[in-house]
Each structure stands twice: as structure tokens, then as C-alpha cells.
Amino acid sequence: PKLVYDFSEGNKDLKDLLGGKGANLAEMTNLGLPVPPGFTITTEACKVYLETGSEPTALRDEVSAHLDALEQRMGRKLGQADDPLLVSVRSGAKFSMPGMMDTVLNIGLSDVSVEGLAKQAGDERFAWDSYRRLIQMFGKTVLDVDGELFEDALEDAKRAKGATTDVDLGAPDLRELTEHFKEIVAKETGRDFPQDPREQMDLAVRAVFDSWNGDRAKLYRRQERIPHDLGTAVNICSMVFGNLGPDSGTGVAFTRDPASGQQGVYGDYLQNAQGEDVVAGIRNTVALADLEELDKKSYDELMQIMETLENHYRDLCDIEFTIERGKLWMLQTRVGKRTAAAAFRIATQLVDQGLIDEAEALQRVNGAQLAQLMFPRFDDGAKADQIGRGIAASPGAAVGKAVFDSYTAVKWSRSGEKVILIRRETNPDDLDGMIAAEGILTSRGGKTSHAAVVARGMGKTCVCGAEELEVDTKRRQMTAPGGIVIDEGDLISIDGSSGKVYKGEVPVVPSPVVEYFEGRMHAGAEDADELVVAVHRMMAYADRMRRLRVRANADNAEDAARARRFGAQGIGLCRTEHMFLGDRRQQVERLILADTEEEREASLKELLPLQQGDFVQLFEAMDGLPVTVRLLDPPLHEFLPDITELSVRVALAESRKDHNENDLRLLQAVHRLHEQNPMLGLRGVRLGLVIPGLFTMQVRAIAEAAADRKDAKGDPRAEIMIPLVGTVQELELVRDEAEQVIAEVEERRGVSLKLSLGTMIELPRAALTAGQIAESADFFSFGTNDLTQTVWGFSRDDVEASFFTAYLEKGIFGVSPFETIDKDGVGALVRDAVKAGKATRPDLKLGVCGEHGGDPESVHFFDEVGLDYVSCSPFRIPVARLEAARAAA
Ligand code: PEP
Ligand code: MG
């Protein structure tokens, strides 16, 4: 196969072969845009190199042929002494990847050709500046010399001249500096900087290949689940120069505002500079609009090109360009990154322009972006005193008093204070403090640091790695640049969506998108927020497109009502144990402690009307829509006092000779019910089978409540769900009893209730015997929390805080399997259970109610395996609706 493509031979759909950069350079070339000529070495060549340790034999000749053609076209040869052709060598994988070698500019310069360049350009300073840049970049990225050695030398040179920026260094200074750089290379590598231009080029190409397997690149791929065998392409592009004087320059531009989505002129321009200067922020850039005054011809041409690109890519594009002595050149374009708000607005704008249809618009946004738009945020209009910035690790806006240790965080929050926990980095000992805090701020660590991972898991706002903030936990103090000191107790505000840290209290406003879902803001209003209008429209597209239904996990009328406003089509999981907390705990305690049948029945009788009342409210809130009520699940000891506290109390009383019969009995019961592994113990259906009357009481309450609603002319649609079933026999026993109770209620109340009865599939054995279980179940709801716990053998309550950070850092998984479904393991069981269940009972209804039901990637999986619905917490419902549509589109 062909290993090298001229820019004119590729196109934007060849990203696998030419990488993102190469494919887009080819596309622009074919659109007739001014791209400096060049060629791309394919990812196939890279793959061969990575597999065999050497370049494919044909590569050298193919590169020579393309280089010859390039030289012909440009009328000069690479590194030619009197007038050198120079090229850049740039990496470009299918996905842009931090940690890979980026760019080496000015390849082709040598001790000889630097003089030729100086003459041709009529600018000695420029030539030496270009040469020193080559040695610096080449030394660092190709020859692996510590980059700081060059930077220090540059600083020394500036200091010696009293210069503030590199522009103040003249030709003689740069010539001297170049010599110095060459010495550094010789000393560090034991060889001279290569003078042969082709050797420079070949070494740079090989360095790009090698960088595919750099440590950071590998880690990034593991975390982002990018396959390791894609390889990278290499782009070789003739150089154009933005540093040839005031009529030259370089810039970046966007076809729309990537922050808001607004159409207009957005970008930055830097006169007399080369590419990396803009990013490095060495000198101040000017707004792109000012280019119109500096160079009207180039500006007009650029505007024209941007319009061409937008219409062609049918999306926001970002662009890198250079102007060389008044001539505009396009160096790169790609579909640009954007904020969540911009993504929604751009998608609807493009629909209005007729550039994309609804299905495509749905692919232009995602659930994570929608979730981000639903967090409360700091008031844009308010005064805010920013003191630092870190990594936006877990979104949200949090305000509180600064505390520097977990103990204080807990103590202060118990007394009603809002606190922000500030640490250099967190570890599992900080967990209590993290739970107590409104938000977490660290000065070290990245997106997979302990703080970031745990905070995301808890849905807590977190900014991590704010390195300019100095945290001194001993002195309970944080120092920001400029000597600003934050003491314990001072108010600070952190923005987990932008990473910004503020001194004092910044006012928080609710998200307009949530106000819209809540019905407090209307998309039809004349002065409607543009973002709200865009979200409204996208949700309408989504609901037209999706196959999956979306239900809510909710166990009270308030949550049910909110879920309905957010678009829920029923309740997929009502956890009845949540109805037994608070005041009712005592009653459950009595049930557990009952010694005689009479005592037990008495306590069940007390619970029945309470449960019935709960269900009436729930069925009313979800009138006309299905409500899946799950019978009691958690281990009983969760309803009893803590074993240690109680033991101490009893022991103290004993020592005072103060016998408390009740406490003693309680302690005995706590001991009797104590389990080493309660998650694997007396829970779910096991409870129902061991405590006579418990499940029948719940079934009766459901049936009576449904009958009450019928009497009130309502439309109750209850479904009864049995948790933690491992074998069909368990289900049959419960089912027989339940059916008797239901029949009895129906007869007595003179109604037909049409209650369906199903099971959770949340144990591996249940999944493996799904075909049998379906004999006795009207529906399955996959409990992927417990299924993940039992398939991996991970304790769902402990792992996130203990070893998951290490697992994430090592790239064993990029995301917790409790957050995104593990398709290969847990998912495979789900897929097979769906098949087996359907084989037994073709009309089996299928859903999922684990946390994964609201996770974007998992929703796609559930759509693919053919579930009927996903169920998730009320706030995740819009996200699930959107992702269900994206899966179907
Ligand atoms: C599950 O296990 O996925 C589930 C929904 O049940 P719970 O989280 O209540 O155990
Ligand atoms: Mg469960």
C-alpha cells in the first residue's frame, strides 16, 4: 500500500490513515484554500515501525519521491545552501493526543543554509532566530535533551542583554545563543546537531513514531480507551513564516464563538511571530477583528475562507493561520471544541441554516454537556475576586469557609457551617471531611487524583491541582499569587466547571436549564434565554427520536412529581426501605425484635396503613404511568442501633448496676443479626422468606393503595418487584403468596388491579438462569449496582475510596465500573439474560434501575441490547432522554 500521500491526494474522511491533521490539510487543499504544499506519512507506516522496530523498506523511496515533487514545486531544495526549502514535521493521530510529540519547525536549517536564509529574507535576525528554534525544538523532542537547559540559556542571554522579550535580542545575540544551544546538544547527547537536512527530517519522523509509545501518550489512551494499535501519521509541510516583520504574523480563529455559539469574528492574532508564540503567551495578542486594520486583504480572505469551511464542515471550525509578508496561509483546521452551552446553541442554529437535520443535531451534543448545564453556577454579573485556577474536576459552584483538615470540616459542618475542604491532596483519611464539605479544593493532582475521583463519585464540586495556590495545612493557611492569604474560616468560592477559585462569597444562581425543566421558565416566552430555547428544541428532537423509555428512581411523591416534570415516563424503582427511615425506624425495630407471632403481627399491622398511604401518594403523582415498587431490600441490622455504641451503653449501665431490659434485648438482636458481609447476607428476597408476613404486608399495602386510587377514579399502574433473587424457586414462593393477597384484596374491594410481578436481575446466578426465572416473572429490571458488585467482587460501598484511585491512575479502567457499565463483563451477562428471558417469554418487559441507567455511555449499551426502559434519579432524566435519542439516531 501507498505509505505517503500528497496533501492533494487525501480528504477529511481518511483520518484513520492520515490522522486528523493530515486529513483536514488534504481537505483544505482540495477546497482550493491556500495550504502550504506538503505530504503525509500514513499511520500504516507508523504501525510497521512500531511492530518491527524499523521503517517499512518502501518508505524511504516514497518520501524521496514526494520530497522531490515538493522541491520542484517550490523551486528550491530542502536545506539548499543559498535558498533553503524548510519544512515542519508534525504529528497527527486520528484523535488529538496530549503526550505525543507535537511539532518541529524549520527543518532544513544548518550552519550553511542559515546564511542563505538570511540573504533570501534580507533579515539576519530572523534567520538566526529560526535556527535557534530548530535546535531547541529538535533537541528537546527528537534528541530528548531536557528543555529547561535551552530555556535557561535563553533567559541568560536575555538577562545579559537586559532584554525583556526574545524580540529584543539581535542577530549577534541569537547567533551566539545558537552556538550555545549546539554545545548543549553535543554535551547532552554525545553527538553534534545533525547538519544534513534529510537526516534531520528522518530523525524527526522517527521521533514522531516513537512518541506514540511515550508514557503519557499510553496513559492517555488507556484512560480514554483509545486503541493502542492505531499509530500516528506524520505531516511534512513547507514552512511559511510569520516572523518576517510587521507585515507577517500568526493567529488562531474560530468560525463562531466557542464559548457562546454566537456567530461573529473570534480569534487572536500576533504580529511578527511564529506559531508557538501565540500559545506561549510571550507577547500580547490582538483581537482578530483588529487584523482588518493591519492587513485588510488578508483579513477579507480569511473571512471568506472561514465561511467556506463552516459551510463545508457544517460545524464550528477552529483554524491556525500564518501571514507571510502579506500572503495568507492556512496551517490547520478542525471541527472545534466548544462549551456545553455553545454546543446546544450551535446545533439548533445549524438546523435553522438547513446545514444539518435533527438527527445530526443530536449527535452534536451529549448528555455530559446537558448535565453540566444543569448545575447551579456563579452569577456572571456578580463581582468576583479570582485568586487562582485549577483543574475543573467535578462540576458545580460551591461557597464556604476555608478549612484545612477533615476533622474541622466535620466539626464545623455539624454546627451548621458551610465549608470548603482545602488540602494539598486528599487521601482516604479525608473522606469524612469530603462528605461534610460543600466542595473540595486541592493544589496538587489531576483529573484522576483521589480528590477528583471521589468528588465526582459523590457529585460534589471539586477543583484540583490549583498549583499556584500554596496550601500550608500546619498553619491552616492558603497563599495565592500576590501574597493574598486565606486563613481558616475565610469565605472562598470554587467553580468546579471552570476550575476557578475566588476569594469571598460569589452569589450562586440556579441553572436556567433546571428552571426550564421545573417549569419555572418557558422556552416560548418573548425574552426567553437563548440557551433554554436551544435545550427545549433539542429535547423535542430527542423525544421524537428515541426508542428507549425513561423512568425515574423515586420513593416519594415529591421526587415523583419532579421526575414527571423532567420527562419521566413512570417509576422504575421505588426503594421501599427509604420509607422505613426516620420516625418509623422504631416500628421496624419492633418487628425485628418480635418474639411471638402476636407481637410480629401487631407491628406489621401498624406498618400497613403507613405503607399504604405512601403508595397512594406515589400512584397519584404518577397517575397513568407505571410505578415499580420494590419490596424491602437492605439487611435488617441497618434498622437497628450501631453495635459498638449500644455495647458501650449497655456496659456502662451494667457498671452502674442499672439494668435496661430493652437495651439488653436489643443488643442480643443486634448480635444475632450481625453479619460479616451484610451485602451478601440476609437481604432482599431472603428477608421476605425468613420474616413471615413482611412481604405480604407490603404487597397488601400496594394492592390496597391501588384500589384506593381506583376508587378515586385514578389510574394506578403498580408493578411489584422482588430484589436479590438468585433462583426461580425464591421467586415462585413469593409470587404464590403475593397472588393470594392480591386476589383477596381485589375480591374484597371489587376491583381488578392488573398488578404485574417481576424481579430484579442483580446476581450473577440470576443472570445465568434468566431463562428459568422468566417463567415466573412478568418483567426484569437489571440491578447493575449489585450486579457490578458481585460480578467484579468489588464492595460497592468501599472501593471508590480505597483502591480505585490507583486503578484509575494505572489505567486499568478509565472510569469506575459502578459509573459506566462494564460492557465486556457485567454487560455480557445483561445481554445474555435479555436473550434467555425473551426466549422464555417474548413479552417480557425489560429495564435497568442501577446507577448506570442515567449514565450516557451505559444508556447507549442498554439501547443496543434491547431494553425497554432505563430508570435513573430525577435529575438524570433529561440526560437519559437525550442519550437514548443519540443512541437511536
Ligand atoms: C442495584 O443493585 O442496581 C439496584 C438498583 O438496587 P440497590 O442499588 O438498591 O441495591
Ligand atoms: Mg440492588
Automatic annotation (TrEMBL):
The PEP-utilising enzyme C-terminal domain is annotated at: 536-887
From what organism does this protein derive?
Streptomyces coryli
* Positions annotated to bind substrate: R575, R630, E762, G783, T784, N785, D786
State the SUPFAM superfamilies in the record: Glutathione synthetase ATP-binding domain-like (SSF56059), Phosphoenolpyruvate/pyruvate domain (SSF51621), Phosphohistidine domain (SSF52009)
Q: Tell me the residue numbers annotated for binding Mg(2+).
A: E762, D786
UniProt keyword annotations, A-Z: ATP-binding, Kinase, Magnesium, Metal-binding, Nucleotide-binding, Pyruvate, Transferase
Name the family.
Belongs to the PEP-utilizing enzyme family.
| Active-site feature positions | H450 (tele-phosphohistidine intermediate), C849 (proton donor)
Q: What is this enzyme's EC? A: 2.7.9.1
Tell me where the transmembrane regions lie. Answer: none
Alphabetical list of InterPro entries matching this protein: ATP_grasp_subdomain_1 (IPR013815), PEP-util_enz_mobile_dom (IPR008279), PEP_util_AS (IPR018274), PEP_util_C (IPR000121), Phosphohistidine_dom_sf (IPR036637), PPDK_AMP/ATP-bd (IPR002192), Pyruvate_phosphate_dikinase (IPR010121), Pyrv/PenolPyrv_kinase-like_dom (IPR015813)
Q: Where is the Pyruvate phosphate dikinase AMP/ATP-binding domain?
A: 59-284, 291-344
UniProt keyword Acetylation, yes or no: no
Catalyzes what?
pyruvate + phosphate + ATP = phosphoenolpyruvate + AMP + diphosphate + H(+)
Q: Which cofactor does it need?
A: Mg(2+)
Q: Name one GO molecular function term.
A: ATP binding
The organism's superkingdom is given as Bacteria
Q: What is this protein called?
A: Pyruvate, phosphate dikinase
PEP-utilising enzyme mobile domain: residues covered: 417-499
Its top-level enzyme class, in one word, is transferase
The keyword Nucleotide-binding belongs to this UniProt entry's keyword annotation: yes
One Pfam short name = PEP-utilizers_C
